[in-house]
Automatic annotation (TrEMBL):
EC number per UniProt: 2.3.2.27
Pathway the protein takes part in: Protein modification; protein ubiquitination
Compartments where found: Cytoplasm
Region (Disordered): 1-34
Alphabetized SUPFAM superfamilies for the sequence: RING/U-box
Pfam families: RNF157-like_N, zf-C3HC4_3
Entry keyword set: Cytoplasm, Lipoprotein, Metal-binding, Myristate, Transferase, Ubl conjugation pathway, Zinc, Zinc-finger
Protein name listed in UniProt: E3 ubiquitin-protein ligase
UniProt catalytic activity: S-ubiquitinyl-[E2 ubiquitin-conjugating enzyme]-L-cysteine + [acceptor protein]-L-lysine = [E2 ubiquitin-conjugating enzyme]-L-cysteine + N(6)-ubiquitinyl-[acceptor protein]-L-lysine
Keyword Ligase in record: no
Length: 299
């Protein structure tokens, strides 16, 4: 588990420079000086500067993910041997062997187990895979989905419940899995079907979940992290990859909840005490997450 960086103490809040000084101590004021955090109406010398909200700064938790489905590659392709049917395809990386299960109209159960709600109409398929990078998965001919068997009511019903049109479970076989978790490590990808302007169905990934050592994590995309490493997997402090504040140090800190990776850790520490707005989108900041890209782990 990563360590939370200590935030330090809150900086002292000074009154507005345009306000006159506090009155001289006397019997009527002793023990009763107005606090700068009190309502301005109770402070007779003008408005006080609003205290800056403290922003927490912590380090990212590193989780080993043995398999990763690349959601941008997921799509439906026509089944050439079975007109009217479509096959799910995508690209994935795996550091250990395992299996992939495709379910239609599935919901997530306990411990990230998938439950098919229309197994009789849309049977699930499962295939095994070996370890390797840039592997391409495609359903076998005849195992895809026929949209003529699916009504608009089915889609609407799924959208209004916790059922997803398509779910992909990538489960690994690893010696590092913890038996006490009850289930092996896995990645779940939830997909919805939508019609485009031509009336054709398209697949769109709406959520990816990791189940690692008995813990569930929802994957969130970080905007800008891809520009911090070059094509050779080496850090590159080039134009567009540096901190947006100092313009010299590489970016390593992400703003939450907007997920913009735009600052170096040094500038982020200063930001905690100066403002609570993201430098990119100006949305309020709840937390700052420091992320270290370890290129030695890249295969």
């Amino acid at each position: 588990m990563g360590n939370v960086i200590s935030g330090g103490s809150r900086p002292e809040n000074h009154r507005d420079r345009t306000s006159p000084p506090y009155p001289n101590p006397s019997a009527q004021y002793q023990g009763n000086y107005p606090s700068p955090y009190q309502d301005c109406a109770r402070y007779p010398y003008g408005e006080m500067a609003s205290p800056v909200q403290y922003v927490e700064h912590q380090e990212a938790v590193t989780i080993r993910n043995d398999i990763n489905l690349k959601k941008e590659t997921l799509r439906l392709e026509p089944d050439e041997q079975n007109p009217g049917k479509f096959l799910l395809s995508f690209t994935f990386d795996a550091s250990v062997p395992g299996s992939i299960t495709v379910m239609f109209f599935a919901k997530e159960g306990k411990d990230c187990n998938l439950i098919a709600t229309k197994e009789d109409l849309f049977p699930s398929t499962q295939v095994s895979f070996a370890k390797g990078l840039e592997q391409r998965f495609k359903q076998a001919c005849g195992t895809g989905i026929d949209f003529s068997d699916m009504s608009e009511a089915d889609l609407v019903e799924a959208n209004e419940t916790d059922v997803y049109h398509v779910a992909v479970k990538a489960e690994v076989v690893s010696e590092d899995d913890h038996p006490e978790s009850g289930t092996p490590n896995r990645q779940i990808t939830h997909v919805v079907l939508e019609k485009d302007h031509k009336g054709e169905y398209k697949a769109r990934v709406v959520k990816q979940i990791l189940w690692v050592n008995g813990n569930r994590y929802v994957l969130q995309e970080i905007y800008g992290i891809g520009n911090t490493v070059d094509d050779n997997g080496e850090d590159a402090n080039e134009r567009g990859k540096e901190c947006v504040i100092c313009l010299s140090e590489p970016r390593d800190t992400t703003v939450l909840p907007c997920r913009h990776m735009c600052m170096c850790s040094g500038c982020a520490k200063l930001l905690r005490f100066q403002t609570n707005l993201c430098p990119i989108c100006r949305q309020p900041v709840d937390r700052l997450l420091e992320i270290t890209v370890n290129n030695n782990d890249r295969n």
